[in-house]
Each structure stands twice: as C-alpha cells, then as structure tokens.
Amino acid sequence: MAKMWSGRFEKSASKLLDEFNASLMFDKELYKEDIEGSIAHAKMLNKQGILTDEELKDIIKGLGQIRDEIEKGEFKFEISDEDIHMAVEKRLTEIIGYAGKKLHTARSRNDQVALDFRLYVQRRNKEIKELLLNLIDTFVEVAKEHKSTLIPGMTHLQHAQPISFAYHMLAYASMFKRDVERFESSFRRNNFSPLGCAALAGTPHPIDREFTSKELGFDAPTINCLDSVSDRDFALEILFNIATMMMHISRLAEELILWSSYEFKFITISDDYATGSSIMPQKKNPDVPELLRGKTGRVYGNLISLLTVMKGLPLAYNKDMQEDKEGVFDSVKTARISLIILNEVIKSMKINKENMYKACKTGHLTATDLADYLVEKCHIPFREAHFITGRAVALAEKNGKDISDLSFEELKSIDDRIKEDVMEYLQLEHSMNSRNSQGATSVKRVEEQIEYFENWLENMSDKG
Ligand code: ARG
Fold first, then answer.
1. Which distant-in-sequence residues (6+ apart) come within 8 Å of 143 by Cβ?
2. I want to staple 166 with a disulfide (CB 3.0 to 4.6 A). Which of 118, 122, 146, 157 is the partner?
C-alpha cells in the first residue's frame, strides 16, 4: 500500500527499509497518548472552524474505536505504517473516510511524537512517584518497630558504632524522598505542551495552543516551536531520575544480599522472594536483590544511550531521535517492577534482632565511647584518651572479648583515673542513645525523624 508521504516518490519502499525505518513495533506503547492528543487537536480545529461538528464527531468516534481495537488485540499493526501516528491515522481514514485525512491539519509528526512522548513521560513520572511513596511508607513502618534494635553501623564495611535498625531504614527513606522530589521537579519543569509546533516553524493555520494545552492537562504551551520539536530533555530527566533511584535501590539490594548471608544472618528473605539452586539443595538465593542490583546497570545504559543519541544533533527533528523511546520504556518498566517487588521484600523479610545484637558485640563498637568518657569525665586530652582506649581494645582482644564486656577491674588496670560509671558508657544502648544530636541515631532523634516522614507522607497524599 502506498505510504502517506509517497507523493514525491517514484518507487515504493523496500521491505528492508520498512523494517529498519519503522518504530511501530515499540512506539505502539504510545497509542493512548497518541489518541488523546489527536482528540484534543481535533476539538481545537473544530473550535477554530477548521473541522465541522460532524467531522469532529466522526473523528472522536473513530479514534475511540481504534483504542478499543488496540486494547482488544484486534488492531492490525503493519510495519509498513512506520509508526503509531501513521498507523492510527491510516486506520481512522479507513473507518471514517475523508474527515480522517483532515486531522493532520496544522500538525506534523514532529510535534505529534514530541507530545505523545512527553505525555507518556509525565504520566509514568506520577506513577513512579506513587510507588516511591509506598516504599517510603514501608521504611517508616519498619523503623517504628525497630527504634531500639541495634545493628553495627559501618564505615569501610567495618564495624564502627552501634546504631538502630530504624535509623538505617530512615537513611533509605531520606534517599527515596529526594528521588520523589526529583520526579516532582522534572514534572513541573516539563509540563508544557508542544502540540501545534508542527514541523519546526509553527503553522499558518489559526490554531489555539492554549486550548490543546489545557485540554491535555499541561500548564501552558511551550515557548519556542523549534526547541519543542527538538527537545528530549524531559526523557533524559526521567532516565536520570530512574538511574539515581536505582542507584539507591542497588545499595539497599547489596545490603540485603550481605545481611541475608550466613556470615551476617541479620535478615531472612521471605520464601516468596527467594529461589533455590538447581544443584545445591541447601541453598536459598537472594535473587530479587541481586536482580535489582543488576538491573541498575541496564538503566544507567539507557541514560547514557540517549545522551549519546542527542549529542551534537542539529536542530530540529532528526530521525536519530526515534532511538529515544525504547530505553525510556525499558527504564520505566524496570523502575515500576523494581519498586513494587522491593517493597514486598522489605515488608515480608524477617528481621533477626538477636543476630544483629550479637554482631554488635564484636568489633569493639563502643571504643569511641570509652575515649569520649575519658575526655568528658576524666578530663584527659583526646589524643591521650585515644591511646588509652587503644590499650583497652588490645586487652579485650587478648582476653578474647568485646570492649563492652571488659570488667571494671580490667579497665582500671589500664588507667586508674577510670571510675565505676564507665561501665554504663561501654553499653551498646547507652552508646546509641548518647548520640542525641540532631538527625542522630538515639531513640529520641529517630522518633523525631519518624514523625517528620509521617508528616511529609501525609502532606504528599493530601497533594494527591
Ligand atoms: N517515528 C518517529 C519518531 O519516533 C516519528 C517522527 C517522525 N517524523 C518525521 N518527520 N520523520 O521519532
């Protein structure tokens, strides 16, 4: 069948070209946005006297039928139609005839694809934000249960100071909150309609871009048509936002993998989200966090791909830009399923408090507390206190115990300025609660943080 653009061509396109040139097999994902964009455009053309009421009615009905056909799997996607825009338009003309051919007045596929893709990105942005909010809510719920559950806080993956599991969960809540804010800010920055920009220079037809912009839920039409058909920043932003979010997810995934190992045993991943080995019957593998960690790499790739596609492209539209979609579709799907499954894993994992506590009893987590005690209570200069504490650690090692289990006699043997009240300072709970500065790990400060996140979440749900 002749192409819609075949007027100036003498030979019909080869099959090989069709296959190479077409985006239909993936951009059919945009069918809803394409149809909604066309309906808004048709309404505007009617309002401006370019389409009759009858023609508008036919177009809306025809487009509705096409949506049904696609959703029921009855629509015939033919690669020779090139992309979703032309596939829909061709079918519309088949269904309603002449009026279908008028729909493309004052529009080009360049502004059409810019619109469809932008609408798609804006909608997925909102969905991902909602899933992130659910996840943050889960962290807060877990935190409420574990304000006094001790785990070894680490630096360099070495035991450092005792912290609460709640505090650790709230660190992730903080990261994902910033992710939410990044999605929100991208949404606001990009909520402008490119429809009506036509090929690149605008159109001589008396269109009303304010009308279509409002109709489609944008804040306003874009400022400059040349930019609007060339711009893919909005797609890059969602790719970057997803990449950063997945980076956060991958760090948690790594911790879940470590924590579920025999060496740690801090958590037990629910059987629903773990798998076995085909050869080693004893194994239970943390596939979900491993995949979350792995998928992060793919999502980074999608960001780098599109940055590279866009690099150095002259204005305005270039066919290179057809390569903008698959990576975004892939990152969006990955983000969605990752957030859903991560939330389930966190909700259903068993938290092995006793093992966490046992781990806190190795590595002399309260050594800093002894040094602080010597400074505060015995007025010893910090450098000297550091040295004395080093000796206490050496003694504990020699006696095969943790610094928190040294007796008063043992401590006194190191320096006789040490008094009985030191015993409290070496306790893990005391250590954690003594870190009571703003944003710190003490129960009191963690309660403040929980309250902060609860208020923030409530505010977010009010905003809708
Ligand atoms: N399928 C194209 C894309 O996804 C649509 C825009 C094509 N415009 C054009 N003038 N060839 O980028």
1. 165, 166, 167, 169, 170, 173, 446, 449, 450
2. 146
Structure-block tokens of residue 178: 């910033």
Structure confidence at residue 463 as a pLDDT band (50, 70, 90): confident
Band of pLDDT at residue 275, cut at 50, 70 and 90:
confident
**Residue 156 known to be catalytic:** yes
Is 90 exceeded by the pLDDT of residue 10?
A: no
Instruction: Specify the DSSP element, H or E, that contains 350.
Output: strand 350-351
Q: What is the mean pLDDT of residues 92-120?
A: 97
Return the HEC string of 307-341. Answer: HHHHCCCCCCCCHHHHHHHHHHHHHHHHHHHHHHH
321 lines ligand 1 (CB under 6 A): yes
CB of 317 within 6 A of ligand 1: the answer is yes
Distance in Å, CA 115 to ligand 1 centroid: 12
Measured CA to CA, the distance from residue 129 to residue 234 in angstroms comes to 16
- What is the spatial distance between Cα 97 and Cα 241, in angstroms, rounded to a whole number? 44
Instruction: Output the pLDDT for position 327.
Output: 98
What is the C-alpha to C-alpha distance for residues 388 and 323, in angstroms, rounded to an integer?
A: 64
- pLDDT computed for residue 281 by the predictor: 73
Average pLDDT over residues 228-239: 98
Q: Where do the DSSP E strands lie in 115-186?
A: 150-155, 158-164
Between CA 402 and CA 367 the distance in angstroms is 10
What pLDDT, on a 0 to 100 scale, did the predictor assign at position 4?
75
Q: Ligand 1 mean position to 110 CA, how many Å? A: 6
What is the rounded distance in angstroms from the CA atom of residue 18 to the CA atom of residue 376? Answer: 78
**Catalytic site residue 404?**
no
Q: Out of 6, 12, 14, 277, which one is annotated catalytic?
A: 277
List the one residue out of 78, 114, 115 whose CA is nearest residue 4.
78
Say if residues 327 and 239 touch (Cβ distance below 8 Å).
yes
Per-residue confidence (pLDDT) for residue 1, from 0 to 100? 60
Local structure of 264: helix, strand or coil = coil
What pTM does this model have?
Answer: 0.94
Residue 233 pLDDT exceeds 70: yes
C-beta of 316 in contact with ligand 1 (< 6 A): no
pLDDT at 205: 97
